[in-house]
Design brief:
It is a single chain. By secondary structure, this protein is mainly alpha-helical. Helix content is 84%, strand content 0%. It has one domain. Helix 1 packs across helix 5. The radius of gyration is 19 Å and the shape is globular.
């Protein structure tokens, strides 16, 4: 745990010392809040958090690959990954430290949006249970996206390639969560394959938790999903360490 803590602090500190992280944060919050507000106005909805959390998975999809593309690709490009590989620390600790630092940075950004539900609660009635559930679901979904992005970043030294691979992968995973997509691919894939693709989509489980319905199966899914891609990340780095 000490090794994870050291790496976590190092990575989290690097976010707050980097001007790119601040640009990322401002753009992320600005785009998310603007789109949520415009959607609410256009749809004529009552003041609620529905528009905000409805757009969050899409905004995550386009922004989080930009956050993860540098996590390993930058280390490989600058040559610092060779130094990391020589440290007396487990690969799993390196991955965990980077993963939780990225998730913590994103949690801080989401914390800046808490003023929106507080304002709604001040001037109207707001059911906090679904809102808190949606924030938890957002962090779980973010963790899944980060795990995918970290895996692709570990495979290349080019940040743009890592960005594009992550973006395409997450777009496909997001699309598989929609019934209309499932119906379309059912025309040329067997039923078991359609069910499998629909079952691995993180968005499908996000919707369930965001409604305030906490099912342990959804939590287990996110833990397994993140664990799978983080383990794949570890296999890539372990192979690199063995090759020297």
């Amino acid at each position: 745990m000490r090794e994870i803590s050291v790496i976590f602090r190092r990575e989290l500190k690097s976010y707050f010392l980097s001007p790119i992280a601040y640009v990322f944060g401002v753009l992320f919050l600005g785009v998310l809040l603007y789109l949520a507000t415009q959607r609410q106005i256009v749809d004529g909805q009552q003041a609620s958090m529905q528009a905000f959390f409805g757009l969050l998975p899409v905004v995550f999809l386009f922004f989080l690959p930009g956050l993860t593309m540098r996590l390993w690709a930058e280390e490989r490009r600058s040559g610092t990954i060779e130094l990391l590989m020589t440290f007396p620390v487990r690969i799993g600790h390196l991955i965990s430290g980077k993963f939780f630092a990225a998730l913590a940075f994103l949690a801080v950004l989401l914390l800046f949006t808490i003023g929106l539900p507080v304002t709604l609660a001040t001037y109207g009635s707001l059911d906090w249970a679904p809102v808190l559930g949606a924030y938890v679901a957002s962090l779980l979904l973010a963790g899944a996206y980060l795990a995918v992005g970290m895996f692709w970043s570990s495979l290349t030294r080019d940040q743009i390639v890592a960005l594009l691979l992550s973006l395409v992968s997450l777009l496909l995973l997001y699309a598989f969560g929609f019934p209309v997509v499932a119906e379309w691919i059912a025309g040329f894939l067997p039923t078991w394959a359609v069910d499998l693709l629909g079952g691995i989509s993180p968005y499908k489980y996000f919707e369930s938790i965001a409604r305030g319905v906490f099912d342990t199966r959804d939590i287990v899914y996110y833990l397994c999903f993140c664990g799978f891609f983080l383990h794949a990340n570890a296999l890539v780095l372990n192979n690199r360490r063995l090759k020297g």
